[in-house]
Design goal:
about 270 residues; Porin; 12-stranded antiparallel barrel; mainly beta; single chain
């Protein structure tokens, strides 16, 4: 399928969902919980019969590598199978990278997986979930790993006093690097709080180890805002910066989430 047609199809889907969500009564699907814009995945699933579409645009600047990267679309589609299960399809969207005397464009790989929430939050213990996934080498030559890359995430989340929410992930993935495959581990922690006028804020830190060149770990921090756009949609904005010597100097992203009952989708 032509790349432009793919992007137009995603845009049409997002537009139809945005129009449809306004027709749902407030609270009909419960609280909207998203897996963006932070790197930390939530422990919540979208609910039986619900489709949730989370998309965004990310700009990264890496001075050491001399590259600027723009990823458009970055879709995450979540399909609710039951109260505890959801299917997931994710991707990097359309990627444009400049630097080092080259200009590269193309679609990134996609990823299939599912989320299973196996424990609800209690007074003293957090909610827990798992996300097994596998990356599929469907992207353009410049942006594909060329292999099937499996991964696993353990998610947790807990409400704490004063209206704050804590969440985090423990991740492991088999990653295809430039010269060899290796096992990469990651840890994340995120804290959020409601603000005013429908806004909420979060602060997050996460680390990967090792990197493609065998170094690490390297910490990154980011912070951002979200704002509800009705009961079934949300806007978001994030700014992040690396702490160590590896990775993008900073990144900025903007995104939008919308959900809808799958039985009422219209095209």
């Amino acid at each position: 399928m032509h790349q432009k047609f793919r992007m137009l199809s995603l845009a049409a889907l997002l537009g139809s969902l945005a129009q449809a969500q306004a027709e749902l009564p407030g609270g009909a699907l419960g609280e909207l919980v998203t897996d963006r814009p932070d790197y930390t995945e939530s422990s919540e699933v979208v609910g039986k019969g619900v489709m949730q579409n989370e998309m965004g645009t990310v700009f990264e600047m890496d001075r050491a590598a001399g590259t600027k990267t723009l990823s458009m679309g970055t879709p995450l589609l979540r399909f609710g199978v039951s109260k505890k299960w959801e299917l997931r399809v994710a991707g990097d969207g359309f990627v444009s990278q400049r630097g080092g005397g080259a200009s590269l464009r193309g679609l990134g790989d996609i990823e299939f997986g599912f989320k299973y929430k196996f424990r609800r939050e209690s007074k003293w213990l957090p909610a827990l979930g798992v996300i097994p996934s596998v990356g599929i080498p469907t992207g353009a030559q410049a942006f594909t790993s060329g292999k099937f890359d499996p991964g696993f995430k353990l998610t947790w989340s807990k409400d704490v006093p004063l209206g704050f929410g804590l969440s985090g992930n423990l991740n492991a993935a088999r990653v295809t690097g430039s010269s060899a495959r290796f096992t990469q581990k990651a840890v994340t922690i995120s804290v959020g709080h409601d603000l005013i006028a429908g806004f909420a804020g979060f602060w997050e830190a996460f680390a990967f180890a090792p990197f493609d060149n065998g170094t690490g770990p390297n910490w990154v921090y980011d912070m951002g805002l979200t704002r509800m756009a009705g009961p079934n949609a949300q806007w978001d904005a994030t700014w992040g910066h690396r702490v160590g010597p590896i990775g993008p100097d900073y990144f900025i992203q903007f995104g939008y989430t919308v959900r809808q009952k799958m039985g009422s989708l219209r095209y």
